[in-house]
Specification:
Blueprint: H1 2-10, H2 14-21, H3 35-51, H4 57-67, H5 71-89, H6 91-95, H7 99-118, H8 125-146, H9 153-169
Helix pairs in contact: 5-7, 5-9, 7-8, 8-9
């Protein structure tokens, strides 16, 4: 009985293993860890569904604009989706504890997702994204200062993602001005004024 009891005590319990995996993560923030895993599938599935609906003019125009966006814009849009997804994942865990905070998480997450979807398609997506990200960052710092939230891995990661996204939103867009008109090419023909001399 002694050796068996010793081996049983040496085996990690499920709670201890879970605590090791989620060390530094607040329990209410744990669902947000699934967002980076689900997001690529959601993006691929969403674009695939839209490409099947190109018979609708609005969808076709949206995809045409999306396909013409730059790599920087697409990276920014993905980061906006990631930040929005993290906030949406925090809605359900906070509903029973702080319904108002849950509603704010939902509104902020939905706004980030909508701006991400408009990236490169709507000309006003940058002016909309910048103040939204600034308010999100300020709200997180205020919640830490007042003690409403405690710093953890998820909150810190989301803050850094939003900070990087804000920097990318402020990156100047490449100039789209058309180049100056080219000078007319010389044809090699010399025009001589006046009539040809008579013989």
């Amino acid at each position: 009985m002694g050796p068996h009891l010793y081996l049983h005590q040496m085996q990690p319990t499920p709670h201890a293993a879970a605590a090791g995996v989620f060390a530094g993560v607040a329990p209410l923030h744990a669902p947000a860890l699934l967002v980076p895993l689900i997001l690529p599938i959601a993006i691929g599935s969403g674009l695939g569904l839209l490409r099947r609906l190109t018979r609708w003019r609005a969808v076709a125009m949206y995809l045409a604009g999306h396909d013409c966006t730059s790599s920087l814009t697409r990276v920014t849009a993905v980061l906006l989706l990631l930040a929005g997804g993290i906030h949406l994942a925090l809605v359900a865990p906070h509903l029973a504890i702080d319904p108002l905070l849950a509603v704010l998480f939902g509104m902020d997450g939905l706004a980030l997702v909508l701006v991400a979807g408009a990236a490169g398609v709507w000309s006003g997506w940058r002016p909309a994204a910048a103040p939204l990200l600034v308010l999100t960052l300020a709200a997180y710092l205020a919640s830490l200062a007042t003690g409403a939230e405690s710093p953890d891995a998820v909150g810190t990661a989301a803050y850094l993602i939003e900070l990087i996204t804000l920097g990318l939103v402020w990156v100047p867009r490449p100039s789209t001005r058309s180049p100056p008109p080219a000078e007319p090419a010389h044809t090699g023909v010399i025009q001589v004024a006046g009539a040809a001399p008579s013989s």
